[in-house]
TrEMBL record:
Record's protein name: A-type ATP synthase subunit B
Species of the source: Candidatus Mancarchaeum acidiphilum
The family this protein is said to belong to: Belongs to the ATPase alpha/beta chains family.
Gene field: atpB
Residues of the ATPase F1/V1/A1 complex alpha/beta subunit N-terminal domain: 11-75
Record bears the keyword Cell wall biogenesis/degradation: no
Topology with respect to the bilayer: Peripheral membrane protein
Length: 459
């Protein structure tokens, strides 16, 4: 089949080609499409039935001449050549070199769709990852092997936050750092330049593999890129025992490309026009994070998505939240106040937090301090809303303490500089400092022994 060309393209719809007379095309098989001018575009088989193969083109199909277009079925699925030489290099969404350097030569190839991890072989995430960011380390802890997405909105500083995490992430009490696999999906030139400058200027590129798909490039590459990135990550983690941090941004662009293909196939749309199988499709990406028993390496995943219209009920964040183990939510209100990284800790959640903190991991008082700050900040925000109605003069002394705590929490704990790499001890120390502005008798979520040992009340 490799040397057979088919000139039976009967229809072209947006990014799809319909080729007749095909009996043995395989699902996800890679094809080569030779256009009238001799240029070759790659594609992938999406569906085959009744002798018709539906092919998704990774290039432009505008002006394609049906009679003079040839399609060659390669008999191979999409594979990525993998090697440790990929570290420090930049690739496009199809896994081809885009930094002007030499091609990657390797005898090892890996199917980009990966293999499902046997749930029995999964090891439970339990090691604390210190990002140096108080709102994450202290309140919504990231654990090695976890998948923890960032829910953001247009114009919010999720790119800066991702770059800061990539630069600062480390295992506490260990000199083991992270190799970073970064996947930029449908980025504009400004975003791409920001990440490239950050990786180069901080030296992070020396330990990173970067895959970039720009907004001006074919949208179909966006469906391939996350799988390319995760294939490289799996190679480093499970073949070379490395700890890999995978950052994927922006998953909203990925889902838009998925919707585009679904519409071209004339499938029955689901919520907001997205395909009904989007949940399953996203799970094939997110579930590739984790730890495997008897394997030293690990994959920790931070997907980033911008919520359309800041709507957390949109299908993209909604389905992502079901699959992943929590979320870090950025707040436009905090951003307008000039607070970076603008993390709303009350909307954020790390379902694996308690598995990665405590005595021997972070500090014995960590869980109690975090719980107390959650409660105090929530109460303080309620008081702040009440104050807008009744005025501060109508508040009791206790209510004024909680109101003051909410202000301190945002200005001292949430707010930090872009290059401020806080240790977990510094983060918890700030927590004790601001809690000391509330009467000690209100500390109902902290053990007395911890109050005596770490408390900063003057009396």
């Amino acid at each position: 089949m490799e040397n057979v060309y088919y000139k039976t393209v009967k229809q072209v719809t947006n990014v799809l080609l319909f080729v007749e007379g095909i009996k043995d095309a395989a699902y996800n098989e890679i094809v080569e499409i030779t256009l009238e001018n001799g240029s070759v575009v790659r594609g992938q088989v999406l569906d085959t039935k009744d002798g018709i193969a539906v092919i998704q083109s990774f290039g432009d199909t505008t002006g394609m001449n049906l009679g003079n277009t040839k399609v060659k079925f390669t008999g191979r699925t999409a594979k990525l050549k993998v090697s440790t030489d990929m570290i420090g290099r930049i690739f496009n969404g199809m896994g081809r070199v885009r930094d002007g350097g030499p091609e990657i030569y390797s005898d090892e190839e890996a199917d980009i769709n990966g293999s499902a991890i046997n749930p029995y072989a999964r090891d439970e995430p339990s090691e604390f990852i210190q990002t140096g960011i108080s709102t994450i380390d202290g309140m919504n802890t990231l654990v090695r092997g976890q998948k923890l997405p960032i829910f953001s909105g247009s114009g919010l500083p999720h790119n800066r936050l991702a770059a800061q995490i990539a630069r600062q992430a480390k295992l506490l009490g260990s000199d083991e750092g992270f190799s970073v696999v970064f996947g930029g999906i449908g980025l504009n030139s400004e975003e791409a330049n920001f990440f490239m400058n950050e990786f180069r200027n901080t030296g992070a590129l020396d330990k990173s593999i970067v895959f970039l798909n720009l907004a001006s490039e074919p949208s179909m590459e966006r469906l391939m890129l996350p799988r390319m990135a995760l294939t490289a990550a799996e190679y480093l983690a499970y073949k070379h025992d490395m700890h890999v941090l995978v950052i994927l941004t922006d998953m909203t662009n990925y889902c838009e490309a998925l919707r585009e293909v679904s519409a071209a196939r004339e499938e029955v749309p689901g919520r907001r026009g997205y395909p009904g199988y989007m949940y399953t499709d996203l799970s094939t990406i997110y579930e590739r994070a984790g730890k495997i028993r008897d394997k030293k390496g690990s994959i920790t995943q931070i997907p980033i998505l911008t919520m359309p219209g800041d709507d957390i009920t949109n299908p993209i964040p909604d389905l992502t939240g079901y699959i992943t183990e929590g979320q870090i939510v950025l707040s436009r209100d905090l951003y307008r106040k000039g607070l970076y990284p603008a993390v709303d800790v009350l909307l954020s959640l790390s379902r694996l937090r308690n598995q990665g903190i405590g005595k021997g991991k972070t500090r014995e008082d960590h869980s109690n301090v975090a719980d107390q700050m959650f409660a105090a900040y929530a109460h303080g925000k309620d008081i702040r809303n009440l104050t807008e109605i009744v005025g501060e003069e109508a508040l009791s002394d206790a209510d004024k303490e909680y109101l003051h705590f909410a202000d301190l929490f945002e200005s001292k704990f949430v707010k930090q500089e872009y290059y401020d790499d806080r240790s977990i001890d510094q983060t918890l120390g700030i927590g004790w400092d601001i809690l000391s502005n509330i009467d000690k008798s209100e500390m109902k979520r902290i053990k007395d022994a911890y109050i005596e040992k770490y408390g900063k009340w003057k009396k």
